[in-house]
Amino acid sequence: MTTAVLAFADEAGPAAALAARLGAKFMEVELHRFPDGESLVRVPSPVPETAILYRSLHDPNARLVEILLAASALRENGAGKVIIVAPYLAYMRQDMAFRPGEAVSQRVIGKLLASAFDGCVTVDPHLHRISSLSEVMPGTVAASLSAAPALAEALDLGSNPLLAGPDEESHQWVEAIAAPHGLDFIIGRKVRNGDRDVHVEFVDAVRAAGRNVVLVDDVISSGATLIEAAQCLRAAGALRIEVLATHCLARPADLEAMRAGGIEQVRSTDSVPGPTARIALAELLARGLAEAGLIT
Ligand code: R5P
User: Fold this and answer.
1) What is the pLDDT of residues 115-150, one digit of tens each?
2) In 91-243, where does DSSP find H-type helix?
3) CA–CA gap between residue 223 and residue 197 (Å, rounded)
4) What is the C-alpha to C-alpha distance for residues 8 and 28, in angstroms, rounded to an integer?
5) Where are the beta strands (DSSP E) in the chain?
6) Segment holding 282, helix H or strand E
7) 10 alpha carbon – ligand 1 mean position (Å)
8) Residue 287 φ/ψ, nearest 5 degrees
């Protein structure tokens, strides 16, 4: 039974690292984007019996179409099992209709992926109101892995550290990263009024006075949440403030705004390529594929 990890050229690095961990072959999928925005996808020949397609779903709209095309081409050319490894899984945040008339994108995209793939492995998807990824992807093997152990390992323990999460949703990551080091932490409260309009406060911000703070979150999107949190903690007397996150989607201008907002360093996993992606996930993904029974 042949198994290979396939990826488009822009993710050849982390995909090849995953292939190496699995002892599997790495193969590149060709992609051409036409001037009108359509994509042409061509899979290599011969296709493996078990095809593990590595594609993170930041910049999601084009990528979603391209993985559906790739899955179809893999099956038509003989793959018996097609698995998607999407370290960042988009559209998971809209998990309910917050206002009348809104589509529940988590459910729609989950079903779409379940219809195209036999298995899905991802890291820290934004599942706050449901308990498992399988509920989102009925009929397929869905594994949701936690980056918390990798983030905990990457934590630089300077002097007098304090961990902080900007909102209640970040609590689970902050707690999991703090525990192996025996660190204390504080959790903020967030009110969001718009994409970049958020307010964060810490009722116990005073605990940050004279401490080196590591802010922890699952996703950095615009960076507004962490800028707000950093300003609150800095006003309370925090010394150095840095950030550890699973996924960093921030654009260069957002990263610059974070620096200007007093955040000295941002480090994230390599789920999304970029200057902050310094924590490799290959080992976690390889283990996740095996533990989910997707590869033998
Ligand atoms: C929300 O619950 C997430 O955990 C993040 O806090 C949020 O997505 C960050 O978004 P932004 O960087 O745009 O404030």
Assistant:
1) 999 999 999 998 888 889 999 999 999 999 999 999
2) 105-116, 133-136, 148-154, 171-178, 224-235
3) 11
4) 6
5) 3-8, 25-33, 39-42, 50-54, 81-86, 119-123, 141-145, 161-165, 185-187, 189-194, 197-201, 212-220, 241-248, 265-269, 277-279
6) helix 282-291
7) 25
8) -65, -40
**pLDDT, tens only, 203-259:** 999 999 999 999 999 999 999 999 999 999 999 999 999 999 999 999 999 999 999
- Cα 170 from Cα 172, distance rounded (Å): 6
C-alpha span between 253 and 29 (Å, rounded): 31
Cβ neighbour number for residue 97 with a 10 Å cutoff: 10
Alpha-carbon span 217 to 174, nearest angstrom: 8
Q: Which of 246, 215, 264 shows the shortest CA–CA distance to 255?
A: 264
Residues in the chain: 296
223 lines ligand 1 (CB under 6 A): yes
Burial class (CB in 10 A: 0-12, 13-18, 19+), 105: middle
Ligand 1 probe mutation, 106, 123, 225, 258, most atoms within 8 A of CB: 225
Residue 10 CA to residue 176 CA, distance in Å, equals 32
DSSP, collapsed to helix, strand or coil, labels residue 62 as helix
pTM for this predicted structure = 0.96
Q: What is the pLDDT of residues 245-257, one digit of tens each?
A: 999 999 999 999 9
